[in-house]
């Protein structure tokens, strides 16, 4: 390692393993938080190696400064997964030998981390695992990964409490750069926006309930769903049944820049998810001046500028007060910077490699 002022500059090779990765540099919707992290890593540590298990299709390519090897598994069922893992392992061990990696960093406590554990054990190098979301739930795979005693990283104190008993845990939040941020903000074009997959755990139907109640006092209220998923048709039909078709837009899945642009135009971000490991959209809203209203999950309960609610009734009351001007407008906040995230990981890498 080379010394850089008071900080030790890393000069080692790191292998990152993830279930999926963007197919090219224009794909901004695939795991945005991981993209932000790796873009900042390249500024600090140069290009590194990434292995993606499921998507895109099999092949090797460059993503900005990083080299990507995609295995193209395409989310196989359990039996196929076991066969693919056993088939791929010898080739991956050879790949590790040829590249002499000094540290392996896996994302999600799933197949990516199981492969990371096997390769780290084979190469006798440290293994870091970042727990990303619902992979926090213990299962047989989780326990197999823990046997190798990786360094576990949680994204929030909320998430860390769920894995603290497994040892070797630390908290490193995600952060933001201005890479995708819109430069011009026309605040107030939308009253309330919610961002996320239209699935049960995200509870998107709560936005319909809130708008239906608020329409009595704000007949022209404007709201929008950003995201897609299996519950979309149900939500669209319910919106019509409640007479909200002129008040609510379903914008579908958008690229990152457009998502941030819509958040920037909104007065409120409503985040009804029942579980988040972190909740990237919360800090995006804070940075763009959209007041977050959320349940206490992920990072939401750790930031005093987020308005925490416990029910849809509370959400209706808070949103109504905010839209009526009875609550102070949010001051822009950018405390969560990706540079801080990477600096914490660099310190961790250095410590593990001493």
User: Widest sheet: strand order?
Assistant: 5-6-4-3-7-8-9-10
Helix content estimate: 25-40%
How many domains comprise the coordinates? 2
Structural class: alpha/beta
The topology string of helices and strands comes to EEEHEEEHEHEHEHEEHEHEHEHEEHH
Distance between the termini: 9 Å
- How much of the sequence lies in strands comes to 15-25%
Low-confidence stretches: 1-9
CATH class identity of the largest domain: Alpha Beta
Do you know the CATH topology of the largest domain? Rossmann fold
Q: How many E strands?
A: 16
The CATH architecture designation of the largest domain is: 3-Layer(aba) Sandwich
Give the count of helical stretches: 11
The CATH superfamily of the largest domain is Glycogen Phosphorylase B
> What is the mean pLDDT?
92
Main beta-sheet strand count, sense and barrel state:
8 strands, mixed
Task: Give your account of this protein's structure.
Helix content is 37%, strand content 20%. The N terminus is likely disordered. The strands form three sheets. Strands 5-6-4-3-7-8-9-10 form an eight-stranded mixed sheet. Strands 13-12-11-14-15-16 form a six-stranded parallel sheet, with helices on both faces. A two-stranded antiparallel sheet has the order 1-2. The chain has two domains: 193 residues, Rossmann fold, CATH 3.40.50; 134 residues, Glycogen Phosphorylase B (Rossmann fold, 3-Layer(aba) Sandwich), CATH 3.40.50.2000. It contains eleven helices and 16 strands. By secondary structure, the chain is of the alpha/beta class.
């Amino acid at each position: 390692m080379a010394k850089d002022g008071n900080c030790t500059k890393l000069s080692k090779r790191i292998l990152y393993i993830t279930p999926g990765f963007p197919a090219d540099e224009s794909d901004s919707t695939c795991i945005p938080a991981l993209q932000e992290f790796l873009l900042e890593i390249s500024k600090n540590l140069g290009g590194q190696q990434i292995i993606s298990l499921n998507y895109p299709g099999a092949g090797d390519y460059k993503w900005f400064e990083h080299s990507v090897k995609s295995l193209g598994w395409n989310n196989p069922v359990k039996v196929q997964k076991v066969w693919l893992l056993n088939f791929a392992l010898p080739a991956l061990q050879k790949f590790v030998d040829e590249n002499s990696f000094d540290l392996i960093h896996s994302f999600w406590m799933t197949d990516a981390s199981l492969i990371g554990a096997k390769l780290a054990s084979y190469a006798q190098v440290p293994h870091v695992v970042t727990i990303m979301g619902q992979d926090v739930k213990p299962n047989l795979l989780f326990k197999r990964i823990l046997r190798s005693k990786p360094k576990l990283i949680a994204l929030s104190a909320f998430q860390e409490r769920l894995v603290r008993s497994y040892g070797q845990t630390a908290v490193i939040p995600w952060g933001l750069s201005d890479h995708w941020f819109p430069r011009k903000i026309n605040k107030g074009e939308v009253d309330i926006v919610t961002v996320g997959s239209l699935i049960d755990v995200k509870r998107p139907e709560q936005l319909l309930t809130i708008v239906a109640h608020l329409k009595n006092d704000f007949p022209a209220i404007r709201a929008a769903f950003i995201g897609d998923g299996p519950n979309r048709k149900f939500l669209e039909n319910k919106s019509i049944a409640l007479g909200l078709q002129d008040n609510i837009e379903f914008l579908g899945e958008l690229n990152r820049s457009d998502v941030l642009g819509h958040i920037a135009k909104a007065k409120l971000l409503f985040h009804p998810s029942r579980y988040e490991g972190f909740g990237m959209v919360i800090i995006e809203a804070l940075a763009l001046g959209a007041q977050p209203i959320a349940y206490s999950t992920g990072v939401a309960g750790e930031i005093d500028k987020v308005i925490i609610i416990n029910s849809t009734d509370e959400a209706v009351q808070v949103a109504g007060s905010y839209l009526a001007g009875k609550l102070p407008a949010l001051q822009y906040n950018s405390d969560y910077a990706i540079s801080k995230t990477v600096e914490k990981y660099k310190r961790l890498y250095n410590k593990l490699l001493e």
